Amino acid sequence: MNEITTIKNEVKLKQWVEMIQQRNESGLTVTEWCKHNGINLKTYYYRLKRVRQAVCNEIEQHDIVPVEPTADIEITAEKIEISVGDVKIFLQDDFNETTLKRLLGVLR
Predict the structure, then answer these.
(1) What NCBIfam families does the record tag this protein with (predicted)?
(2) Which domain covers residue 98, as residue numbers?
């Protein structure tokens, strides 16, 4: 496609997006809105389809970059230490949050 055709298509799509937004904001059904605005129902759905295709094509153009895990990450099991007076409690980092809240309530 040449540059003029590309720009022309982009302008049309922008107008169609605005049309669809106006219909959505109107609170009317598609049929009611089209009758009120003098737009053929098939024309509305054709434009809606083209807008959706353009959005999908735009999404497809983004590259997905694979992420490789690094081997130098050290995985440790962190521990939680709770001290209340003479009492010390040691918990694993993945200790159940609900149980921890109950335990802290008892220790108060």
Answers:
(1) IS66_ISAeme5_TnpA
(2) 77-108
Q: How far is CA 65 from CA 55, 62, 68, in A?
A: 20, 9, 10
49 lies in the same domain as 13:
yes
Residues 46, 90 within the same domain: no
Two structure tokens written together for 39: 């737009």
Report the C-alpha gap between 47 and 56 in whole angstroms.
Answer: 14
State residue 74's pLDDT score: 64
- Does 42 lie in the same domain as 9? yes
Q: Could you state, in chain order, the average pLDDT of each consecutive group of 10 residues for the chain (108 residues)? A: 87 93 93 95 95 81 70 66 74 76 71
Distance between first and last Cα of the chain: 73
Whether pTM exceeds 0.70: no
